Amino acid sequence: MKRILFFALAACLSTGACRNDGFEATVRTAVNRQLRAYPESTLKDLYKNFFQDKFGPGHIIADTAGAGQYLRSELLSYENIEGETAEPTGREGNFYRVNLSVLKTGQVPYEVYFDAFIRSVEGIQPPSVKEWEREWERIEAVIASMRLGLPDYEADRGEIAERFAQGEFAGHHSSRFEASYSPHYRIISKEIYEREIAPLLLPD
Fold first, then answer.
1. Residue 66 burial (C-beta neighbours within 10 Å; 0-12, 13-18, 19+)
2. Which of 90, 166, 177, 189 is the most exposed place for a label (fewest CB within 10 A)?
3. Contact criterion met (CB below 8 Å) for 102 and 108
4. What would the 3-class secondary structure string for the chain be?
5. Would residue 155 count as lying in a domain?
6. What is the mean pLDDT of the chain?
């Protein structure tokens, strides 16, 4: 029996079958999903996606009135509608990026959208900066193993590390992403999106 267990363990280790690949698998899925939709993404853009999955919109809603004014001004600032209507964030899909196109096309009333956005802050229990830094290191290791040839990879990696060293953690889209896709969206919790927003959207 001991010999059988020994050889079974050896086979498991040699093939990697006994590793807990759940984390890696979800990272790879999230990365591949973003790169299919936005092939010009850099490491900074991937970081922002995973960051949003942990922190939601909380870091940008310090002033509700100001957030409303900014949203209205953003709606007036562009005409062309680009990007997916809604897409899950990160590896856990805790939130959705919901395109402002749903307001432009009148599918979702402004009040419903904005209220969903504001309430998406409720109940968030984000990790500490140190905890998030450790998780990001695991995520980035998986991304590195994928050998994606992302542009400006080392520069982005260094910038992210420097921000952590300064006790900062918020992510921003790269200038390459902004120029290629002109993103316009807000982060809404998965529960609120699926219950209140998704039923209002027109079928494709």
1. exposed
2. 166
3. yes
4. CHHHHHHHHHHHHHHCCCCCCHHHHHHHHHHHHHHHHCCCCCHHHHHHHHHHHHHCCHHHCCCHHHHHHHHHHHHHCCCCCCCCCEEECCCCCCEEEEECHHHHCCCCCHHHHHHHHHHCCCCCCCCCHHHHHHHHHHHHHHHHHCCCCCCCHHHHHHHHHHHHHCCCCCCCCCHHHHHHHCCCEEEEEHHHHHHHHHHHCCCC
5. yes
6. 87
**Segment 105-136, tens digit of pLDDT:** 999 999 999 999 999 988 788 888 899 999 99
Domain that holds residue 70: 43-200
Region 14-18 average pLDDT = 38
Q: Which residue has the tokens 């807990």?
A: 20
Number of domains observed in the structure of the chain? 1
The answer to the question of residue 99 being in a domain is: yes
Please indicate, yes or no, if residue 12 is contained in any of the structural domains: no
Q: Flag whether pLDDT at 165 surpasses 70.
A: yes
Whether 88 is in a domain gets the answer yes
Q: Are 62 and 166 in contact (CB under 8 A)?
A: no
According to the model, what pLDDT value does residue 2 have?
Answer: 34
Q: What is the pTM (predicted TM-score) of this model?
A: 0.85
